Amino acid sequence: MGLPRQQVRPRSGHDGEQGAAPRGLAWLLAATGAAGLLASWVITLDKFLLLEDPDFKPACSLNPVVSCGSVMTSEQAAAFGFPNPMMGLVGYAVVICVAAGLLAGARHRGWFWLGLNAGTLFGVGFCSWLMVQSLYEINALCLWCCLAWVATLLMFWAVTAHNVRTRVLPAPGPVRGFFTEFGWAPPALHIGVIGMLVLTRWWDFWTG
């Protein structure tokens, strides 16, 4: 009789390495990364045009509320001493590279997913600060900025849901079950809250 074959147990998050991420997650990261990169690129180009010609009017400056020029010329538009979209050019490009790797079958360890989660969390926090500044200090909206906000929060919640489901982020069973069945709910609620804030902030303008 031959020796019994040794069963090989698939490696899980507890072993330090994750299996291949769902292709849906990879495609979502690719789409949101591309959307954020496009927004950052357009804003950067318009910022340079504004520096060359102070009278330049960006195409997305449509009215007193939707006024990209007002946002681009504000102090908040260069929070770290240089135009904010330059960070987006780097950050969103990294997300696209991660998505391409996942689509090619790359497998990453837990620390990689935690790092990606931390990066997207920073992005959500920074975008939230910019949103508050736009609504209550600058008193104007930039459509390209709004696109970047939505793209960032979608990638954050997608990565968070993946990390909870694969136990990279420790969570009780009911929480893992929630993200498995209703992973769409947190980003939908998040976007809904932003939409309501924008609607109520300029309610008289929208309904006038």
From TrEMBL:
Main subcellular location: membrane
Keywords, sorted A to Z: Disulfide bond, Membrane, Oxidoreductase, Quinone, Redox-active center, Transmembrane, Transmembrane helix
UniProt xrefs under SMART domains: VKc
Domain of life: Bacteria
Spans through the membrane: 21-43, 86-104, 111-132, 138-161, 182-203
Topology relative to the membrane: Multi-pass membrane protein
Family the UniProt entry places it in: Belongs to the VKOR family.
Protein name: Membrane protein
Lineage: Bacteria, Bacillati, Actinomycetota, Actinomycetes, Kitasatosporales
